[in-house]
Structures are given as structure tokens and as C-alpha cells.
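Re: your question from the hallway

Yes, I did run it. Sequences:
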Amino acid sequence: MSAPTTTPADVEQIVRAQATASKAASRVLAGLTTDRKNRVLHDAADALLAQTGSILAANAEDVARAELAGTEESLIDRLRLTADRVEGIAAGLRQVAALPDPIGDVIQGKTLPNGMALRQVRVPLGVVGMVYEARPNVTVDAFGIALKSGNSALLRGSSSAASSNAELVRILRDTLTAAGLPADAVQLLPSEDRSSVTHLIRARGLVDVVIPRGGAGLIKAVVENATVPTIETGTGNCHIYIHAAADLDMAEDLVINSKTRRPSVCNTAETVLVDKAIAETALPRLTQVLQSAGVIIHGDEPGMVPATEEDWSDEYLSLDIAVKIVGGLDEAVDHIDRYGTSHTEAIITDDLAAATEFTNRVDAAAVMVNASTAFTDGEQFGFGAEIGISTQKLHARGPMGLPELTSTKWIAWGNGQTRPV
Amino acid sequence: MSAPTTTPADVEQIVRAQATASKAASRVLAGLTTDRKNRVLHDAADALLAQTGSILAANAEDVARAELAGTEESLIDRLRLTADRVEGIAAGLRQVAALPDPIGDVIQGKTLPNGMALRQVRVPLGVVGMVYEARPNVTVDAFGIALKSGNSALLRGSSSAASSNAELVRILRDTLTAAGLPADAVQLLPSEDRSSVTHLIRARGLVDVVIPRGGAGLIKAVVENATVPTIETGTGNCHIYIHAAADLDMAEDLVINSKTRRPSVCNTAETVLVDKAIAETALPRLTQVLQSAGVIIHGDEPGMVPATEEDWSDEYLSLDIAVKIVGGLDEAVDHIDRYGTSHTEAIITDDLAAATEFTNRVDAAAVMVNASTAFTDGEQFGFGAEIGISTQKLHARGPMGLPELTSTKWIAWGNGQTRPV
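Structure:
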């Protein structure tokens, strides 16, 4: 880490000044046509490609610092940019440009009995704060999604990616300036210490929403201390319930895909609940296929790594899985209610009544019947872009695309109507 | 006030136990058919009518206590129930029964390229906490709206209405029990001191949303200290901008209606911004008509009560209004940005471009053109029932009806789909 160059009081002042400038910029963005926003997104993609050299140079500084600090290779890989990855980031902006613009959509409307014409119109949220970890691509993705939905982006990236993020944001700001738009529509907050996060999440009245993307600890800290509205994302303690009427070949495929496709992401399966009625057949098959895939099994049965409370409550995000035998659908739902994080829950069954009951009773952002938990994803759902996966019930639930970064406004046109007493 | 019968530690335990029971009850409510919910609403209406005597007796205790405490008559009037008012409360429940049930609505759906059938379905939020002031009718209204949208209601009413609320909730709980449903779907939290509010807004994981209804102080305290998601309601520092191209007869009517119809409610107008271009004609007319209606004018012009910063920033909720001359639309929008609470803002003009620009630029739940601010109201908008008016941008904005008390769930039906790496 670099030595802090600012005092805590400075950080608060800096963050509030940035948020104020972000709010002012958001008022300009709210009035832009779709054509204009799309042009800026393509301009930014062009600028990133043209300046790949300077981006890679800045990134090399971050990577060198991480290597010096002995950071593990998987984290360095997330941090590292290449010419290919920069191309991918630019292509992402063009993809956002191609998406429909939600702003200005009329959601509903009617003429009141007194003749007033009423419509509910989609408008930007205003200032969107993002707190995220090492991947520098998130910096550009968040800018693109925020801009297309008419919002300013106030970005608090990881200090480990400070040089990369600074260079990327410089290029984005130059693009905005060249397009005659306020550069403050995208800003990077100081990342030397946690205090900038604290000031961001308490800038009520300046920041309209903060979306934390990262580990459970970050999300909990943000949600518990924020006075700004937040959207909780990404903690996924996902379960697969293998019902008594499950096709066991399918069960093997789905458990393996849900667990091993990308163990470090939030939609990976962390616990398998096996119905007692089929456990005698299912458990040995499952054990064998999981072990062949290099997955370590935690649980209460012989031959498993003995499970503690954390095995049921926490995400592994690794090639580990917890396995539990349950007495039936009621016990499966109870277990999920108790330990689940309301992200993605799946049932494997050929029984229609069981599938229906599970989807009705389980309280989660996504409930899958005979499908991999890995499908909970904005791209898979066809959103074209994703800002995160909400696990809360208010405002947005599940993968969030452009419409989830908007609010609404009622507009009424009258000709002098007064309301009777 | 009655003497506290519980210690602070007790209150925390009580609130958490009530919230836990509320959560359990909410799982039952989530699975009820519309028919069953409607039957309970009619049962409750019948029970309230049949037990009007005991309701009025309990209410008489509250009223007597308030009179003894020297409470002002307007507050006592809000607290007081009569046979007519009980009839109105019961009729409100039947009206909610007649509304369409939002639960189970399919908001969007599609078949993914791999054959998975995906749909986004409306589901209840779970446990809805309400913090509100004297009117006992809110107790029953909140129960009705929560039940119809499949939610448990955790109610924290005013201690001044403690006896009335206790009797109303007893009747509602008896109705639920008689219908074979969990009585804990509606519960009254202790109201002896503020600590039950604190515990309610920090019962994260048990309570899904808290909606404060009351003065700006209550709402601020709830929003700033909550870890549970909240919906900010009801603070309305509403403006009317009389544009240079306004019809001044219409302006007089709209200002008078917006200010004097019911000065104590949130959609009342608190400031009039008069365009400099017409001030010479408009101001004397406005002054005369406001004074005739008994309204005290605050402002910087001769003959007005000199205005302080609070005159621009706070709600009067009385027969007072602030009047300011502005240089044009830009200055009007800037003033509203600075002092408005994003509730309802109005422009009076015959100029299409000015009307369009005002509706585009002003950031509020409702923007009116040539209509009274008093129209921002769930009943006026045709929602049939209203739980409050949200002035925040996340989740719900403006009057909230049944759909605003719901969340969504993605349900995917597959036949063994796995996601490619």
C-alpha cells in the first residue's frame, strides 16, 4: 500500500466535494438523449483502445506492487490487464451502447376523471456509488452502465488497483470533456483507507444509492453503517435439494456444474440437501462424482469432513461442498430458510407438486427447477449488462441491469384542476 | 403517558420475539390464495362493526388521557373514534378486498435459448414494519394493505392511541385465529418509549422494510439509524412556480387550493415562486387572495413577514406560505433543487417549452403542470389504498399502493440445463 497522503478530515471533505460535483453532473446526464449517450460510450471505447499502452503501463505498476507484497497469483490474475482484456472492456461499452435506454420509458399512464393526464416515467437515480474490489474492468463497466441509465458514477475501487483505475478514469473523464459533458460524471474516490467508504455511504442527500460488490464483510459493513440507500449484492450461500423423485443422472450433472464451473462466484452451490428416501443410492453416487472432480465434502455422514455450523452458514467459494440428509421437502425448505442468503436455490425432481411447492415456498432471488444454480446471471437472463446480483427484496432482486439503476417520476398535465375538499 | 412497565432490555427481547413470530406468520401469508385473503378482510370488517362498542370504550380511555394531558383539540380530533369512523375503517378493509391482488403477477418472462422457462413473479416482502402517529385508523389500514399483499404487519403506533390500537389489534388477531391463520400476522409493538422503534429498525433479517409515517424528525431518526431497509415518506416541502406565461386566474385558484385545502398534509404547497417578469401584476393579486383566505405570507418583499432560512427549507403545515420572486425557470429549478423534499412540485404556465423543461428537470416524486399539488395521493391516482407517499428514489416513489409492498422472485424451470464454462 502507498502511504496515506491525506488526513481523515481531508478525506471527508474530498468525498463530499466529489459527491457534490457528481450530483451536479447527474443533472446534466439526466437530460441527455440516448443518441448522445451512445456516442459517448463509443468514444470511450475508442479512447481506451487508442490508449491501451498507458493503461497497461499503469496496470503494470499495480501488478508489481502486488507481487512485491506477496499477493497470491489468483488475485494478481484478477488485477492484471492485457491488450485482449482492454479490448474486452471496450467491447463491453459498445454492448451497453447497443442496449435499449430505459430512461423516458412510460411505465403506466392514464387520464383521471377530472381530465388530468398522468404518466409514470422512468428517470435516473442520480448518483450511483460503487464499492468494489480488485478487477479494474469494473471501473469501466460501472461507468458505462451508469452513463447509459443517466447516472453519475462515484467509484471506490480497491487500493490494489489504484494506478489502473486512475488511468482508466482519466481516459473516461477526457472523453466526457471532449464530448462537451461534465467530467465529474465519473470520479474515483480516494482508496488509501476505508474512511472514503464511510463518507460515501453517509453522504445522504448527495448520493442516491451505494452498491457494494465484494465479500460478505464489506457488504455487511456498508449495509449496517449506511444512511444512503444501499443494494446488498452477491453473497450466495446457494443450495441444491435432491428430492426423492429426482433423476440421479441429472442430479450428478447439476451438482457438478453448480459447484465446479466457477467455484469462486456467488452463484456456485455450497450445500447439497439429499432426501432421506433416496440417500442410500444417491449419496454414494454423489460422493464419487464430487470426489472425482476434486471437491471436498463436509457433512455429518461417515467419510465426510465433520461439519461445523459455519459449513452450513458460510460460502466456501472453493472446491468444497456441504452435504446433508434431510427428511423431506419441509426440512429442506427450513434448512434453506435458516442458512440461505436468498440468492439462488434449486430443486431437482420429476415431481410436479414438489417442484411447485419448492418454488412457492423458498424465499430467494432465483429458484431453479432442474437447472444449474450458475444461471443466475444478468448475461444469462438476457440483460446484456449486469451491475451485480441483489439479494435484498427492496428495489431490485436478482441480477440488476439498466432498469434497476432507475427510479420513476409521476408527471401530471392539467388545465387548472383543483382538488375538492 | 402510562408508567413504563418494562425495562429497556425487556423491550429489545419483546420486539425481537415479535419480529420472529411475524416472520413465521409471513411464510403462511405468502402462500394464501386471493380468495382466502379477501374473506379474512371481510371477516375483519364484520368483527370491527360488531365490536364497535368495545372499540369506542377503549378509544374513550385514550381521549380522556389526552384531555387530562392538555393535548390540543386538533390532535384529540385525530385520535377520536366514532361509530361513523369505525364504519369508515371497516369499509376501507372491504375496499382493499376489492382491489386486484398483486401477488403472483408475472411481471416478465421468456424462454432462454437453452430451453429454460424463466419468469419474474411478484411475491410479498415478508414483514412490514410501520411506525406512525396518533390516528388509530392507520392500524387497521396497515393491516389490510399488508395482508392483501401477503405481508405480516408489525405496528408501532403512538402511545397516545395505545388503548384503541390494542383493542383494534385484538379484534384483528381474533379474526385471523378464527380463520385458521396465525394471529401473529398482525402485532402491536410496545409504545411506552422510543426504544421499540430502535429495536424494530435494527431487526435486520427479521423485518423486511420499515415505513415511518410522521413528522420530519421521526423519519430522519428512522432513516439514519435503521439497518433494516426503510422507505422515507411524507415530508413535503412543495413549491408552485408561477411562470411568466401563467394564466393568473388559474394561478390564484391553484395556489389557494394547494395551500388551504388541508394545510396539515404533506402535499400542501409551502412556497410560491413568482417569475420576475409578471411579479408586478401577480404579486398584488396573490397577496390579496392569500390574505383573504387567512394565509400569512413570509418573504423578502415589503409587507411580508421577513423570511429566514427555515421559511424556505421547512414545511409550515399551517396557513402560512413563503413567497419568492425568481429570475426565471433556471432560478426556480435551482431553488427547488436546494430546498425541495422531492415530493410534489408544480408549474403554472401556458408555455409548452417551459412546462416540458420543468417536468424534465425537476427531480420529484410528482411534477404537476397547471394542477394542484393536492393531487399527489394514492386515492386520487386510482390506487384504491395508500400506505404512504415515498419521497425516496429506491423501490417506490410517490404514492404507494399494494404493488409497492411487494418484491419479485425469478423462477426458472429446466430439464437438466448446465451452464457451459
